[in-house]
Amino acid sequence: MTPLLQLSGITKVFPGVRALENVQLALWPGKVTALIGENGAGKSTLVKVMTGIYQPDEGEILYKAIPVHLPTPESAHKMGITAIHQETVLFDELSVTENIFVGQYLHKGFLKKLDWPEMHRRAQAILARLEVQIDPRATLKTLSIAQRHMVAIARALSFEAQVVILDEPTAALSQHEILEFYQIVERLKQEGKAILFISHKFDEIFELADHYTILRDGVFVGAGAINEITEERMVSMMVGRAITQTFPKIDCEKGETVLEVKNLCHPTEFAHISFSLRKGEILGFYGLVGAGRTELMQALSGVTRPSSGEIILNGQPRRFRQPADAIKAGIVCVPEERQKQGAIIALPIAQNISLPQLSRLNPNGVLHDDREWKLADEYARRLQVKAFSWKQAVETLSGGNQQKVVIGKWLATHPDVIILDEPTKGIDIGSKAAVHQFMSELVSQGLAVIMVSSELPEVMGMADRIIVMHEGLMVAEYQAGDATAETIVSAASGAKQEAA
């Protein structure tokens, strides 16, 4: 079978950086090809070449075996190539139909009036092809994240895209929504679409993909049929080494209780939450999207205020009116949305790490750059942040290194409790292993860790105890090793409403 889209010998050079070198990629009609690599491997750059944002310095692009030039995103669009990103730009205040046809509205009559009845009809027909129940007249802001993904895919189908690039499409979806997404991909395959699937989740890759292509440091390292490679071999090709221990959990002695939460309630997000946490312990929180885990962590870290209940830290009752109160007391939180909430990404690494310490490092309002630099250097090196300089802007780093900067920033405050909300979301296998290793080092030094994760293997592999939440309630608690994946998922789904 001839590839629908083929990239051969693609090289892209930026000043001082060879982002891609001799990269090969082939996409076949009705097949899914997984593009695999660590953050910084060149996946995003390659997608930008495919969609006309960047032009390659060397190599060629063939569409239906004919060499083509894609000088602009519009040219790729007309060719039938579209990318659906994790945060694809849609318009909250517009209807589903308007989002599907934005930039390509249909007109009628001499005066070229917008033909809304026809656009609604076509939008409904496209959604029916995907077998999703969405009202085309509904305002986008009323839809779930999963439904927004469906609208983005419908938008691609509206201009008869033949090549569909799915970039981390399931990152914000619940398990149920992920299964629905799998069905959508299967329908796209049945329509003969050539699909490029980018994901860090190996279970999804082996579930959906027919072929794979692996990049490392901008270089093509291999491709083939997905049924001819093992996960271990794939990881080795990605990182250039074997990841010997996926969850390097250290069994260390647990110290005294550092945090007690008693009957904590919020008017709308959670109720009757009680648990304790000891020094040297990792406490995992698991639940489906909307279970209230993140909202609970926001209350513990001073972002929101609970309506009742107690937070006791080192034996002292605490009330946090703002995050600064929690930080001063010894509780810090690495948020799920690291780019929006965890860092000022336009600022350098050094300034981000030193930000919570400005008053201490710069008494009397006098700036001491050397002190800030020394602090940043200590924690950036400790966390093995990969950068040319600590003056490098955080936004230029890979997702894994951005996460390390945010963790370093809060570790520099010397907390008693660190909350990690989805600590490995959207980062590659090598960076995940580094974060897991560092978590083990933290608890071995006596720090208490709360980890919120939607990845069940991570929770089961790293936590000493696991608390399961469902619709704002604690519904189960397990010691490590006492629960199976089935019992945890059952509790998270609401099938089990009592603690183990």
Automatic annotation (TrEMBL):
GO cellular component: plasma membrane
Cell membrane among keywords: yes
Protein name stated in the entry: D-xylose ABC transporter ATP-binding protein
GO molecular function: ATP binding; ATP hydrolysis activity
Domain ABC transporter intervals: 5-242, 253-496
Membrane topology, from the record: Peripheral membrane protein
Organism: Enterobacter hormaechei
Keywords (A to Z) from UniProt: ATP-binding, Cell membrane, Membrane, Nucleotide-binding, Repeat, Sugar transport, Translocase, Transport
Transmembrane segments: none
Subcellular location: Cell inner membrane
InterPro entries in the record: AAA+_ATPase, ABC_carbohydrate_import_ATPase, ABC_transporter-like_ATP-bd, ABC_transporter-like_CS, P-loop_NTPase
